[in-house]
Amino acid sequence: MRRYAWALLGFAVSAVAVYYFFRQAPPDLLQRVAERGNVFIVGAAILVPAYLIRAFKAWLVLNVGVNAVPGAAASLWVSIALNNLLPLRLGDVLRIAYVGKTMKVGVIRTTAAVLVERIVDLFVILVLAALVSFIVLGDQFLPLLRDWISTLPLFTIVPAVVALVVIVAIAMLIFRRLRALIGSILGDLKPTAVRVALLLSASIVQWLLEICLLGYITSQLIGGIDGAQAILSSFLSNLSTLVPSAPGYVGTFEVAGILPFQILTGRVAAEQSLFVFLYHLVIWLFSTCLGLMALVGLTIGGQMFRRSSVSQVLSGDEGAGK
């Protein structure tokens, strides 16, 4: 029941986010998107190595044999596509079931692998976002943030500080409760220094491609938006996947990329709305198409395997009869 309530909350949040986004977006948004087909071609070229690295990470965390690489890759890509299309994170559920059935990996271990992937990705995104903010945007973003905070009335600052303290306290309490569970999960996955280093390195390269390179190139192909601002917007959009939303992070992905800038500057440029929408659309289309092709491949491969098994059984019976 709680799972359905979470899904309903996600649809509600996405509905509000979509309404807000299209209030800020230019009226000819779809026409502008149609005029920039080159973004999808360049975006796909960048996302191909990024999603191959994603597949390598999935295989690395599962700690299975080399012959399981295709299955680990296909199950990951299918799960992403289904999460783009179906509610309740059904893609992750089906991925765990498929890996358990075909690779003989337990449900607990597969679930732990998915959890570790998400934690590592979140850690890497946060670190990279902090580096981008302080190194690349320090002379632009931080003064705006300081000026904005200085203009806030006292009655809004005090509750914000109190809320931050409460959030930190709750996070520390949750971490203490989950520490034993996290230790058992990591123990089940049997991490080594080499595998951890490879996982972190792969995650860094993947997100540099998906966020920094794709965000920067998209902004340059659109024009009218600063490349550094576009990269920061891409980081914020990717972090929005932690927020409840409809399948494919509809609305929330876009709002996260423009709302902070509206708060800081008081306006949203039409080019930035176009950038966030196109950036999301490129990723959504690529991941969905790749996942659906992988699903077709798994289906055909499964049917061929079953036919081969039946043929072997029949041949064995005929041989015994002779």
Characterise the protein shown here:
It contains 12 helices and no strands. The longest helix has 52 residues, at 270-321. With 322 residues, it is mainly alpha-helical. It has helices at 2-24, 29-34, 38-62, 69-85, 90-102, 107-136, 141-151, 154-189, 193-222, 227-239, 252-265, 270-321. It has one domain (2-151, 189-321). Helix 3 (38-62) runs antiparallel to helix 9 (193-222) and helix 5 (90-102) crosses helix 6 (107-136). The protein is globular, with a radius of gyration of 23 Å.
Q: SSE layout and pairings?
A:
Elements: H1 2-24, H2 29-34, H3 38-62, H4 69-85, H5 90-102, H6 107-136, H7 141-151, H8 154-189, H9 193-222, H10 227-239, H11 252-265, H12 270-321
Helix pairs in contact: 1-11, 3-4, 3-6, 3-9, 3-12, 4-5, 4-12, 5-6, 6-8, 6-9, 6-10, 9-10, 9-12, 10-11, 10-12, 11-12
List keywords for this structure.
single chain, 322 residues, mainly alpha, 84% helix
The tally of strands reads 0
Secondary-structure element pattern, one letter each: HHHHHHHHHHHH
Report strand %. Answer: under 5%
| Average pLDDT metric | 83
| Count of DSSP H/I helices | 12
Sketch the major β-sheet.
Answer: none
Write a short abstract of this structure.
The protein has 322 residues and is mainly alpha-helical.
